[in-house]
Amino acid sequence: MASVGPSAASTQPALPSGPAVFKTIPYAFILPEILCGTWVWILVAATSVSLPLLQGWVMYVSLTSCLISLLLLLSYLLGFHRNSENWKVLDSLYHGATAILYMSAAVLQANATINSEFGTNVPLNYQLNCAASFFAFLTTFLYILHAFSIYYQ
């Protein structure tokens, strides 16, 4: 007969703290998410924003997501989670919602890229917008990977 007690709770993997965050999937995705999202923001800011409504949303999503992900990374590094299971739910919900927002931003950035093909300073803006679109879709993929890989731990 199997006993249910403290040993049953110890079978679940502990949430990482400190430098172990960078070695544990899915938490190792946080730093690339921040870096790729920062590139999206920088590349869009470097263009002459011809469609402010579209690219404003892209910049809002990328900057807000970078800041919240940075706070989440710092909380894992400093051990604020205290190995609570609620942090896994919070992490999964945040990354799932952010993946949806980033997908909308990536599609709008791709639309802005298509429209920038015919604007002023065409080669430079088009190349910057292409790079921003690439990093937006890459960041979306990273957020999706992070959100789903929590379930497969």
TrEMBL record:
Q: What is its main location?
A: membrane
Pfam families assigned to the protein according to its UniProt record, in alphabetical order: MARVEL
**InterPro entries according to UniProt:** MAL, Marvel, MARVEL-CKLF_proteins
Where's it found, cell-wise?
A: Membrane
PROSITE patterns in the record? MARVEL
The UniProt GO MF terms for this protein read: structural constituent of myelin sheath
User: Record's Gene Ontology CC terms?
Assistant: membrane
Query: How does this protein sit in the membrane?
Result: Multi-pass membrane protein
Q: For this UniProt entry, which residues form the secretion signal?
A: none
Please list the GO biological process terms of this entry: myelination
Any transmembrane segments, and where? 27-51, 57-80, 92-112, 132-152
Please list the residue ranges annotated as the MARVEL domain: 21-153
Instruction: Name the domain of life this protein comes from.
Output: Eukaryota
Which key words are in the record?
Membrane, Transmembrane, Transmembrane helix
Q: PANTHER family per the record?
A: MAL-LIKE PROTEIN, MARVEL-CONTAINING POTENTIAL LIPID RAFT-ASSOCIATED PROTEIN
Tell me what this protein is called. MALL protein
